[in-house]
Amino acid sequence: MTIKKKYSSLPFVILFILHSLLLLYAFYKKSKEDRRNMFLLLLSNIGIAYIFEYPILNVYRAYRYKPKILKNNLLDNVLGAVISQGIIVPFTAVFLTAFNFGKKGKILFSMYYFFIERLFVKLGIYKQYWWKTIYTPILIYCYFGISNLWYNQIKKGNSNVLAITHFFCVNVVSINFLFVLAIMKKIKFGFGKVSSWHEHFLIVPVYSILLSFLAVLSVKKGGFKPKIIIFLIDLLIDLLLWKLNILKVKLNALFFFLLRHVLTIYCAVFFRKLVYMGKGRV
C-alpha cells in the first residue's frame, strides 16, 4: 500500500497538528513558572533529538523520509526528519513529562510510535535501510525517561543541566535558522565548486555546535567585550570557510555574516536570562 504523491505530506501534517494540540494543552494547564521550565525542556528535547539524528540520519543514513514537500529529495528527507524527530516526538515528550505519565503511559506512547512507523513504511513515505522498527519504541521510551529527568533537574537548578540547556536553546535556533536558509537555497556547505547536500548536512551541525558554544561562552561572564571578541572570531571562521569555498553564500555575504552571528549572540543573551531566571544568576 502506497499513498499518492500529492497526499504524501498529509500524515506529517496530521501528526504535527495533533501533537501541537497536545503541547498547547500542556502549556495551557500549567503555571507561568512551569511553562518557562517546559519551554526550556522543549528546546532541550529538540536539541537532544538533533544530536541523535546527526549520526543516524546524516552520517549513516539509517532511513529516509518522503513527505514530498520540497522538490530536492535530500532537503525533503531532512524536513521529514525535522517534523518527525525534531517536532512531533519532542512535543510528545514534553506532554508526557508535564502530566507526569508513568511507566505504562510511556510504554503506550512508545508503541504508538512503533505502529506509526510501520504505517509510514506501508504508505511509502518512510523507507528503512539498516534501521529496524523495534529500535524505535525502545529508544523513544528511553527518550521519554530522559525528558522527565531533565525537567526535574531544570526545576532543581542543577548547574550542569542549566548550562547544557542554555547551549541546546541557542543551538536549536541556530540549526533551524541555517536549515531555513538552506531550503531557500541561500547557503550551502561543501567541498569544491560542486558539492552535495549530503556534505552540507554533515558540516552544518558541527559548524552550528561550534558557533553556538562560542556564543554561550561570550555571555557567560557578562559585559560587552567578550561578545565583540567572539563575534569577530565567528566572522573569521566564516570568512575562512568562504575563502576556502566550503561555505557558499547567495545572500550578500556581509549581510549573512552579520545577521547570523548577531542572532546567535542575541539568542545566547536571551536564553541565559530565561534559563537562570530565579536561580540567582543572569
Automatic annotation (TrEMBL):
The chain crosses the membrane at residues 6-27, 39-57, 77-99, 134-151, 163-184, 196-216, 228-247, 253-271. The keyword Ion transport does not apply. The keyword Nucleotide-binding does not apply. Keywords: Membrane, Transmembrane, Transmembrane helix. This is Uncharacterized protein. It comes from Litchfieldia salsa.
